[in-house]
Design brief:
Blueprint: H1 8-20, H2 33-40, H3 44-56, E1 60-62, E2 68-70, E3 76-80, E4 103-114, H4 117-123, E5 130-140, E6 143-152, H5 154-157, H6 171-178, E7 185-193, H7 197-203, E8 211-219, E9 225-234, E10 238-242
Parallel strand pairs: 3-10
Antiparallel strand pairs: 1-2, 4-5, 5-6, 6-9, 7-8, 8-9
Helix pairs in contact: 1-3, 2-3
Length: 246
């Protein structure tokens, strides 16, 4: 349905188009409610609701005591399984994804955790047995886009750089290779769902934004599970690509 000039719907559609076509670039400050009201001939309260609609659609982020900013950026293309081989060249797996904007890992937490049923079953240990736990939050252009929790058998990880914040060239998989447990087979399971409250906060998600939950298990040449990683992806930030041959 075509919206009429002077309506909230017309203002919302016009601003959405400007965001998607790049008129308003990622990170740009959006027009204020007053500016939107003046441009589209609507009252300021209606203009505020237009901003709220764009925020609920995941297109803008409103910062407390500040303004609204364009939240979108070029989608990250995450390709499986090819991305998992880059560690052999000394790269981090995250560097294989398509979005080449500067990325950093923040809030890296390393310690031990009690194995859950899901982790214990693939590691072949008892529920509650300690395993090494690495927790990360990934961010690009000041926007969080992924949470990741990885688990490793304690007897493999201890004494290696897996328990360091900086795991070195090639990351964890290169360190596993050095001790004779290079991953050679991977399984990923995906499902889309609404985020938990803590996930919404950590990823700064607008209301109504779903996440993609991915669980990856990695196995060595003897088919021993050497890693379980649980990832939470902001669904609006990613394109997932899967390749295979028959």
């Amino acid at each position: 349905m075509t919206r009429k000039p002077g309506s909230a719907g017309f203002a919302t559609e016009t601003l959405r188009e400007r965001i998607l076509d790049g008129t308003y670039a990622p990170g740009d400050r959006m027009p204020s409610a007053t500016a939107i009201a003046d441009e589209f001939g609507i009252d300021r309260g209606t203009a505020s609701r237009v901003i709220a609609e764009l925020r609920n659609a995941g297109l803008v982020l409103t910062k407390p005591r500040s303004a609204s900013y364009v939240r979108t950026f070029e989608p990250i293309q995450r390709s499986f399984p090819g991305r998992l081989a880059v560690w052999q060249t000394g790269q981090a797996i995250q560097d294989a994804d398509s979005n080449k904007s500067p990325q950093s890992v923040v809030e890296v937490t390393i310690g031990e955790a009690a194995a859950t049923q899901a982790v214990a079953s693939v590691f072949g240990v008892e529920v509650g047995e300690p395993v090494v736990h690495r927790s990360r939050r990934f961010i690009s252009k000041e926007r969080p886009f992924q949470l990741a929790d990885s688990y490793y058998p304690r007897e493999l990880a201890h004494g290696t750089r897996i328990v360091y914040t900086d795991t070195g060239p090639g990351g964890v998989y290169a360190r596993l290779a050095e001790i004779g447990h290079a991953p050679v087979r991977f399984v990923e399971r995906l499902r889309a769902r609404m985020p938990l409250p803590a996930e919404s906060t950590a990823l700064e998600l607008p209301g109504g934004t779903p996440v993609v939950a991915i669980t990856r298990t990695a196995f060595d040449a003897e088919d021993r599970c050497v890693e379980v990683t649980e990832m939470i992806l902001d669904s609006s930030a990613y394109e997932l690509e899967y390749r295979t041959e028959i």
